[in-house]
Write a structure and sequence with these properties.
about 120 residues, alpha+beta, two-stranded antiparallel sheet, 7 strands, about 30% strand
Length: about 120
C-alpha cells in the first residue's frame, strides 16, 4: 500500500470553546474502509501523521465545526509502521482496525478511484 486515505472531522473540544481535529476512518487503495477506535480518533494520537505537509494543509483548510475532508497520504516508512503491519493489515497502536459496511465503502470508492 503506497497510500492511505484518511477522513478528518472538526468537532468541539470537551470544554466547548475550541475545535479539535479527529481522524475517523482510513481507506485503502481497494476502497476498503476501516474505523479508528473512538478512543484514538483525536489527531493528537497520530503524531507521525501530524508531521506531514498534508496534515498542515488539512488543518488550514478546515475552520468550521463539523467539516469533514477525505485526503490520501503517501505512506512514508514511519507512517507505514504506524498504520500497516508486516502483512498489510491496517492497525493503530496495538489494535487491528475494524472494517466498515458496504455503504461507507461505496462513498470511499468514489474518492479512491479518483486518486489511484
Amino acid at each position: 500500500m503506497d497510500k492511505l486515505c484518511f477522513e478528518f472531522v472538526v468537532l468541539p473540544s470537551s470544554d466547548g470553546k475550541s475545535n479539535t481535529f479527529y481522524i475517523t476512518s482510513i481507506a485503502t487503495s481497494d476502497a476498503t474502509v476501516h474505523v479508528i477506535p473512538e478512543e484514538f480518533q483525536s489527531v493528537n494520537y497520530h503524531t507521525e501523521l501530524m508531521k506531514t505537509f498534508a496534515y498542515t494543509k488539512i488543518k488550514n483548510s478546515m475552520k468550521k465545526r463539523y467539516q469533514t475532508r477525505k485526503i490520501c497520504i503517501t505512506m512514508t516508512k514511519e507512517l507505514r509502521k504506524t498504520y500497516i503491519d508486516e502483512d498489510d493489515n491496517l492497525q493503530f497502536g496495538d489494535q487491528y482496525l475494524e472494517e466498515v459496511d458496504q455503504k461507507k465503502q461505496q462513498q470511499w470508492h468514489k474518492l479512491v478511484t479518483q486518486v489511484y
